[in-house]
Amino acid sequence: MQFKTRTDEILLDFSLYANFLHSSGAVYLHTDVTSEIGLDFKHMDGRSGRFYFLEELRSGTAFFDNDNDLDIYFVNGSDLPGHNSAKKPINQLYQNDDRGNFTDVTLQAGVGDLGYGIGCCIGDYNNDDYLDLYVTNYGNNVLYKSKGNGTFVDVTDQANVGDSRWGSSCAFADYDNDGDLDLYVTNYVQFDFEKHKTCRFNDVETYCQPQDFQGESDLLYQNNGNGTFTNVTREAGVYNSRGRGLGVVWGDLTTPKTPISISRMTPTTTISIKIVVTANLQMLLSTRGSHWAKTEKWRVEWALILATSTMTVFWI
After folding, report:
1. Does residue 157 form part of some domain?
2. Where are the beta strands (DSSP E) in 175-307?
3. Which of 89, 138, 259, 287 fits a disulfide with 76 by CB distance 3.0 to 4.6 angstroms?
4. Which domain, by its residues, includes 96?
């Protein structure tokens, strides 16, 4: 899988209601083309005025298939106590027709997960040259294996990657250099509807902060090379009981071909990681929150950053 810098950048805005796709035809100029290209997805977070902490996160990501154009997979929420939708919200996959128009192929592809979705990532974990999809949820995460014909099958149980905590983000990388992709999953906090609480600010009822909840440790799954994974979080030394992870980035920061993961934690202040190298550096960003990166050449990349000396990654 190769990522290339494109002349026309795209910007996706994810909100409670409609989403917007902006096309950049010139510097700092964007035009809303969401409706005309077929993107009618609306994110639903299930809020009902009860200030469930779960409602505070939004979701969405870009997705690639094997026809060399960009498709889009939107991760959706679901109903929460006190909120009942007339139509059950599901995740949606929009296929690009190579002319910039999109068609909803969710049902045909078999990726309409009904969980409370938070994030997702893609990677060819079984080395069949087709990208597979992992979805993080509040609840059971899901691994979809590509059949190679535009459809997917849920192999979560067979692959042993069905963690049921509050997963927020994920990223594939071959951290042990054995030729297959391993999986890192960030977990957020322990949240239970039966123990729901609200907080107050200046005597006004509002959402609590991440620090008000016990964190959950992230997970590292090692690929066994036979379609299954093994949880090696503790053995690999990445267990962290404080948790509250929202994003993860893999990068070769030390010796050649040795990926390192950096997990971004809350509280939600802007943080930056400055990396200085003497050779080429590639970093793949996968994060639930907003992020951007710059190099000494002031080039901003959306997903894959290539730098030759210094790069700074900012999370907001």
Report:
1. yes
2. 182-187, 199-201, 204-206, 219-223, 229-231, 245-252, 259-265, 271-276, 281-287, 291-295, 304-307
3. 89
4. 48-269
Examine residue 31 and state whether it is found in any structural domain, yes or no: no
Q: Alpha-carbon distance 176 to 122, whole Å?
A: 18
18's CB contacts (< 8 A; 6+ apart) are 34, 42
Strands lying side by side in the sheet with 116-123: 116-123, 132-138, 142-146, 152-154
Residue 194 lies in a domain: yes
Domain-embedded: residue 283? no
Domain count, the chain: 1
In this predicted model, what pLDDT tens digit does every residue of 39-59 receive, in sequence order? 877 766 655 655 544 555 555
Q: Which two tokens stand for residue 36?
A: 């005309």
Residues in the chain: 316
Minimal CA–CA distance to 94: which of 116, 112, 115? 112
Rounded Cα–Cα distance for residues 119 and 286 (Å): 9
